[in-house]
Design goal:
elongated; mainly beta; 8-stranded antiparallel sheet; FN3_dom; Jelly Rolls; Immunoglobulin-like
Amino acid sequence: MILRHEFIVFLLFSFHAGSLPANNGDVREHTELVRNASHSFVIDVGGTLDPENIEITIENTGGVPVVKPRIKVNGKYNFYTLEDMVAEITAGCATDEEKAMAIYQHVDQNYYWWSFPRDNSSYNPVRRFNVYGYHICAQAATQFVALCRAAGVDARVYETGVHTISEALWDGAWHLLDSDFGAWYVKSDNRTIASIQDLLAQPELVARTYKPYRWYRRDDDRKIIYRPDGEPPDAGLKHIFDSAREKGRIEHSYDDRVFTDYSMDITLRPGEKLVRWWKPVLGKYFDQREKLEPPRYGNGQLVFEPDFSRHDYSGSIQRRNLKLAVEDGVLPQVHPDLWQDSAHGEVSDLVIPVRSPYVIVGGNVETAFYKGGTSSLDRVTCSADLDPTGDKRTRLWNYYEWACGQGEVQQVLDDKLIRDGRQATYDFDVIFSISANQSGKSIPKAYPMIYGGISGLEKVKITADLQVNPSSLPALSLGRNVISYADQSGGDRDVKITYRWREKSGQHPPGPPRQAVSPADGSVRVNATLEIQWSAANDPDGDDIVCYRFQLSFRPDCAWPLATNFDRDIREGTSLKVPEGWLNPRTTYYWRVQAEDEYGNRSPWSRVFSFTTR
């Protein structure tokens, strides 16, 4: 029995009499047939907003295994290996500082805080991002460190005793970047990011740092705050560094879990397909027996329906004393080679492996079979090795000894799979054992004994239910989408790619603020204590502007803010008062603003404005 828990969150939404939420149109579908190792095609998405992505399916419809099929959209979503992730995250970065900040922002902005899955392999960035997408402090720190090291930036995990954080090394010094809290702390020069040791020596650097609230988007795009900012900036932070004075240490115990070489690559056999949904269509997730349902996750299925009349699946199944219809034309499709008698009692076995890059959270095995007699030598049984810790077969079914003829069974695997605990399931084996009595060869092929005295399998379909992180999936966006496909298969392949999405119309995002009101753009000799003001944004639908996101930076590209104090939401007015002591004299600063309407639609960033202090 699954226990469901109720919890309270804050919903931020409002109703505007003059405007309605975006209208969702009919579901659109695009199917592309691929026969080359490299293939590109275009999907144009209409509407006025980014679409609701629904499903992507890759299916092997040919006769050879499809090895490492990969899909990118507009050059993005290449998250198959650690090296792939780092290359995309740090694209355009020239220095170790730039790489570390890009990785920090990836972990901070593309995951959300939630009770972590106890799957040991989820500490690895590849599995964490593609499978789960949520974490607590230890996972956030280990993701950051693993990605930094893969990018050539030295980094380390630090345990304070009550919180796990991370540091990166650049310019000969360590710098604390806490991607779980979404914060770092600037030294008294108002420019250099402090280390843990700096903060132990100067705790006031922590006290002046604004701690942002946490939020995520529901599938219906309403914003939910589950850790609102209601405390003084230093509340809840000071005790972390007080604890570090007594219990702080550099931590290496995560390394064996973090640096295991995981990949999201897969080989699809003929008749196998990988289906992924952006929403939790199945409602299944890892740790389901003991954890609350994550607020945002997706599901998928790996479905294998082999056709033994066309393919022998050499190298992708194991068999003993078995023949296939593709080899001898005999039905049922899978049947014993040597029939059993008192002198030859070897049972015929078929082992079908299921290997998934995503965590398996359920599934089923559908079988159509035939049993040619009722003796002890006539047998059709099905079992599975569902335990990732070793070879432990679980009997799924055994067709009645007293029965014969055709039969069908659908065995649900959900309650038999190990879905909770530190060892998650990413693969399992389905095993069929078949035997046919030698004396049954004389049985005529007449209904109901349509195949005579032989026993075997007519049809097999194995489905593994998956948990996926929707943020990692190759999503379509408004306008032109160039989809790039590549694989490493040998010979000719036949692959079918299907996208399903729903376009959104009837709403438009707001425009960005157009002017720097005060100080004017390019102003010089500005007081270091000032209030930055911008012009109000306009919404083409007349929707209310409920929030502005403000960023202040040393950099003309605003790649990261001066401090986390200066990357924040402004929910009242069109200005931000800069606290005293944060701006240095004779220094140029750059800033920009983004508007958000009452339905959560965000504008592009404004152009970057600047001013120079006196």
